[in-house]
Amino acid sequence: MTWKRTVVPVLVAAGVLLTGCNQNGWIEGAGAPATPSDAAGLAAFLKDGTASIRSAHLELEVDAAGNSIKGSGDETLKDGKAEAFDLTETIPGVGDIRVLLVDGQTYVQLPAGLNPSDKPWLLISADSTNPIVQQLATSLQSVTSSSSLDQYTAFTEAATVKVVGPEQVDGADATHYALTVDVTKLPNDTPGRSDLLSAGLVKLPVDLWVDDHGRPVKVSEELTVQGQKVTTLVTLGNFDEDVTITAPPADQVATG
């Protein structure tokens, strides 16, 4: 799971003027919403667009070293930050791993061969005396932080951007941006930042699709980590649908 700690958190970015934009950094077309074309404009657009989102559905695909991980799940948000999420990932040769974040607590459901307890769920804590739980706590910290949509604004402010043009994502209108993130300009507490810098990754190319409401609907990236090519694709949708996420029953959770 070490490489995954590096890849999953790094999903977005933006910045740089494009020819044809006006002095406010927006491209305007007749009868169409203004499209931000510089870092400041895109950051503001994303901040406004994500602040009011109550829930979202996530689809994730990661390919690395010939292995393909697929995941999907739902999350609830407030002011752009994840309050709860329920994500299941399928890892070849390992099986399904389900992660729940509820009321500030993280729970994980592992395949039987990896579960060190006799209960189906583990409460993840860095203070655990169980080495497997300790390792999971470190690995899942970045995943938990990365589920918040307000990270897109921070990444935008640390990047350069080129407007590729209008495209459709799952049948909906969106604008495609080609971004280059300067990892050194990300806030020090950005999930995955230290891992990327340790791996010598200073510039991070990312493609980002944003809909007309300022919501990120698709993100893709391709990079090389420790000599291995890694590609990531994330799609977001089903915004503001009713989502209920609850903690597993206490008698099904192992602690310690």
Question: What does this protein structure show overall?
Answer:
The chain has about 260 residues and is an alpha+beta fold. The protein is built from 5 helices and 14 strands. It has helices at about 1-5, 40-50, 130-145, 150-155, 195-200, and strands at about 25, 35, 55-65, 65-80, 80-90, 95-100, 105-110, 120-125, 160-170, 170-180, 205-210, 215-225, 230-235, 255. The chain has a 12-stranded mixed β-sheet with strand order 9-10-11-12-13-3-4-5-6-7-8-14. A two-stranded antiparallel sheet has the order 1-2. The protein starts with a helix and ends with a strand. Residues about 1-30 have low confidence and may be disordered.
Which of globular, elongated, flat, extended, rod-shaped describes the shape? globular
Strand composition percent: 35-45%
- Termini gap: 22 Å
Task: Work out the number of β strands.
Answer: 14
How is the largest sheet built, in terms of strand order?
Answer: 9-10-11-12-13-3-4-5-6-7-8-14
What do the pLDDT scores average to?
78
Largest sheet: 12 strands, mixed
> Residue ranges: pLDDT <50 for 5 or more in a row?
1-32
Number of helices: 5
**Class derived from helix and strand content:** alpha+beta
Q: What integer value in Å does the Rg equal?
A: 19 Å
Features of the shown structure:
alpha+beta; two-stranded antiparallel sheet; 14 strands; 256 residues
Quick structural overview:
The chain is α+β, with helices and mostly antiparallel strands. Helices cover 18% and strands 42% of the residues.
Topology:
Elements: H1 2-7, E1 26-27, E2 35-36, H2 39-51, E3 55-64, E4 67-78, E5 81-91, E6 95-102, E7 105-109, E8 121-124, H3 131-146, H4 151-156, E9 159-169, E10 172-182, H5 193-198, E11 203-211, E12 216-225, E13 228-237, E14 253-254
Parallel strand pairs: 8-14
Antiparallel strand pairs: 1-2, 3-4, 3-13, 4-5, 5-6, 6-7, 7-8, 9-10, 10-11, 11-12, 12-13
